[in-house]
Amino acid sequence: LILVQGINTFLSFIFLPYLSRALSVEDYGTYGQTLLIVNIVFVGFSFGLGKIIYTYFSDPKQDNNEVFISNLYVAVLSGIFAILIFLPLVGFTSNLFDNQNIEPLLLIYLLSVPFSIAYLTVNASLIFFDKVSLVAKIAVFTNILKILLIIIAIQILNSILAIFYFLLFISFLQFSIGIYFSKKIFSFSSKKFKLNLALEQLKYGLPL
How would DSSP label each residue in 25-51? Predict the structure, then answer.
């Protein structure tokens, strides 16, 4: 996992200089502002769900399927809730940053929040059940694909809008791959969802 973090950090390190040169100053600033805002929303509505799940998996009294499904449902719903809360504030936010160009980008990239939050649950679950190498491969694959798609968006499509469509696609793809492999570990029956367990994880995850 440390190796993967090192690879991803290296990819980001060599990619940022490219972005700063390939995009205009205005587009680069808009790109950065959009990432910053959506990341704040993502962190603010993650509610520590990807961390608290380790505690529940470690409790022998808990049903791991119920823990996973309940946590996953809350993660997706919190992401949807984040979108509903923030959508009316997009115009206000663009005025706050004095940059109207971020409005359409925020509307696109905000849709990635439910996938990103839910992937925290999936990622933590795969790691807990000894799928670290799989998590590493998913991370490297999606990061490399993200870089390639962004290069296509800039060099071929010449569109900053396309960058965020691709970033949204990557979030969905990463989540989908994680869910595919999670099905080999967990039962995805809706009967496994327990409201009390979901609310309890949310309650204890909030401080994290």
Answer: HHHHHHHHHHHHHHHHHHHHTTTTHHH
Check if the beta carbon of residue 151 is closer than 8 Å to that of residue 163: no
- Mean pLDDT (whole number) for 160-175: 98
Collapsed DSSP state (helix, strand, coil) of residue 186: coil
pLDDT band at residue 208, thresholds of 50, 70 and 90?
confident
pLDDT at 169: 98
DSSP state of 189: -
CB half-sphere exposure, 148, CA atoms < 13 A: 8
| Mean pLDDT along residues 148-176 | 97
Q: Is the pTM of this model over 0.70?
A: yes
Q: Are 176 and 116 in contact (CB under 8 A)?
A: no
Q: Which two tokens stand for residue 165?
A: 């469509």
Q: Encoding tokens for residue 44? A: 């603010």
As a whole number of angstroms, the distance between CA 100 and CA 183 comes to 42
The Cα angle at residue 47 between residues 52 and 49, in degrees rounded to 5 = 30
Backbone region of residue 15 per phi and psi (left: phi > 0; alpha: psi in -120 to 50; beta: other values): alpha
Whole-Å CA distances, 1 to 6, 73, 128, 139: 9, 26, 12, 10
